[in-house]
Design goal:
This protein is mainly alpha-helical and 164 residues long. It has one domain. The protein has seven helices and no strands. Helix 2 packs antiparallel against helix 4. The protein is elongated and about 60 Å long. The mean pLDDT is 89.
Amino acid sequence: MKSKLKSWRDFHNRINLVYHAIIAVSLIPFALVFLDIDSGEDSASQLEGPTEIGVMVILLATVFMTCFRVWKNAKEKYATIDQDWNIKKRLIVYFNFQIKRYMQLEVGAIVSLVGLWLTTNYAFAIAYLLVLVQFSLLRPSQDKVIRDLKLNKAEREKLRSDEL
C-alpha cells in the first residue's frame, strides 16, 4: 500500500476492496460447485473408498489448521506495531498484516472448495461456511482498527478527521 493514504475513508475503501475481492475469489466458484452438486443430477465423488476418506481427512485438517494459524499470533503481531509511529505508518503496517490474514483464510476457503469438488461431501460446505464466519469476524471497521492498534483518544480523533 502506497503512502497516498490521506484519510480514514481512503484506508477503509482500500482495505474493504481487497477484503471483498479475496472473499469473491472462492465464493463464486464455491457457489457454482455447490449448486452443481445440489442440482439433483448424478454428481458422484471423484474419489473412491479409502482414498476418499484419506483425502477428506487431510483436506479438512488443512482447512482447520489454516484457520487456526490466522488467530494464533494476532496479538503478538499487533504488538510489533510501534506505538511511537504516526497513524499513517501504523495503518500501512496494519493493512499489510490484515491482507496476509485474509489470504491465509482464503487458502482455507479454496481447500474447502477443492474438497467439495473432489468428494461431494457436505462437510466441506460446512467448513467453507466456518471460514466465511471467520472472514466476518475480521471485517475491517473503524472500531476494529482502533481496538487492534490500541489508539488513544487523540489518535482516534485524528483517525476520524479528514486528514491523517
